Amino acid sequence: MARIDELFCDLVGTLDSLNVPYAVMGGFAIRAFSVPRATYDIDIIAKLGEADIASLFEWVEEAEYGWRADSEHNRVLNVAGMPYIQLLAWDRHQSIAADIFLCSCDYHRSVLSRRWQAEINGFKAWIVSVEDLILLKVAAGGLRDISDITERFFCPTEIDQKYLRHWGERMGITERLEQILPLISH
Known about the structure:
The chain is α+β, with helices and mostly antiparallel strands. The protein folds into two domains: 1-128, Beta Polymerase, domain 2 (2-Layer Sandwich); 129-186, no CATH class. 42% of the residues lie in helices and 24% in strands. It contains eight helices and eight strands. It has helices spanning 3-17, 26-30, 50-62, 106-113, 130-140, 143-150, 161-171, 174-180, and strands at residues 22-25, 41-46, 66-68, 77-79, 82-91, 94-102, 116-120, 123-127. Strands 1, 2, 3, 4, 5 and 6 form a six-stranded mixed β-sheet that branches. Strands 7-8 form a two-stranded antiparallel sheet. A hairpin with a 2-residue loop joins β7 and β8.
């Protein structure tokens, strides 16, 4: 098993054992809707309380993983106003990151309420809905993100256009979303 897959299975298993609501995003979630592609990190959104965070870091130390912190006492980082924890594993001479975004707004709560369980690499995990995967990929806006949902993506269900447009407007991505929607296969 590749080191990133090992970290994925360990992390998801730990979140499940802690009864933490979470949803896998990014490249691992794409695997549930598409031909698998290589991914070099893990992206998860989770509703972690203080006790959950403490338990998560105990597990990190026991499992001999690491984390990135902005100071000795602050393990919660911030990117674009979103708090997250970054766990690290090492494979030869490179690090593998698992970014756990902390549920911190109405959209995140919506993402967790719409998650569903899928099998990824033979392992059951909670993943974001197809609509949330599209929104998150459009919001990220990278070439790989857009390619994931326009070239590699197969949507097995009807897409909830009303949900996409509602959150697209609130996220400020309406124009990009409207350009991409016609390109998505379903």
